[in-house]
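Interim report to the steering committee. The following record documents the input for DUF3626 domain-containing protein (290 residues).
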Amino acid sequence: MLRVRELSPWAEAAVTHVERAATGGPVDPTLRVTVNFHPERLHRGTSVLQAVAADGTYRSQFETGTSNGGLTAHPGGDRWRWEQRIFGGAYDDAPDRERPRYGALNHRRRPVGGAPRFGSAHLRLAAHTLLRTTFCYPDSFFEPEHLGTAAALDLARRADDDLTSGVVDDLDSYVEAHVHGVLDLATDVEAVVLDPAFRGSEVEGAAADLPCAVEWHGGFRVDLDTVRRHPDYRGRHIVALAEEVAVDGWLDPAVIGAAAATQEHHPQDLKKVWHHLARFGAPDQPTHPS
């Protein structure tokens, strides 16, 4: 299969392994893979977006040591083990730089990206990256049996069925994507899409240095009354933290980012505050597929 970018032997073996297990019809070529992330979060003294702009590529958790999920990307760790299982051991001896980058198939065409659980911003990847992307549902954390490629994918239907029936939460109903090979911002990314809470900030300044278009979605925003109505969503202590970090009774990505920058709160707790915002304050609250 033509994949546009020549893949490493490790990546080629990984995609070929998934092709053997994939079922379904081809992906609609107008759909896009998106990579959600928190652009303002700091890592080694600089923001994630500044680091991406300076590097010109989007790197995997194995390379950066950062994640909006679990930090298990190391030999023998959960992420390493999940990749070993999904890709048939293809990456077992691969350098960290060769491992896949994670995103989601935005099959619902949401302006906030396919998996807002992982951040307020996203990179919208170019169509040609579909040819070197594999997919699974649910998230690889759950060690799924169902895999797919751009040529054979029935995972979106499964995700929609689970969302409609209430089997999964809105934030968990994404089709996970694994982009194999280098993810170059100049050739593989159509746009970075940001939250308007960051207009006029260092985030917008860093975005201007990217070799791709800069776009804005409608903005995540939720009031504390809404958060208080869902005490069981992530726990009452998370509601209390939301009350502590909110500004004038509201949460948005910049507010949570500022709270993270103080390093006064546990990152996992702030991640759950973000989940409240992403779930109940999205500008395009998802409707269950019919």
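The mean pLDDT is 93. The committee is asked to note this result when reviewing the revised timeline.
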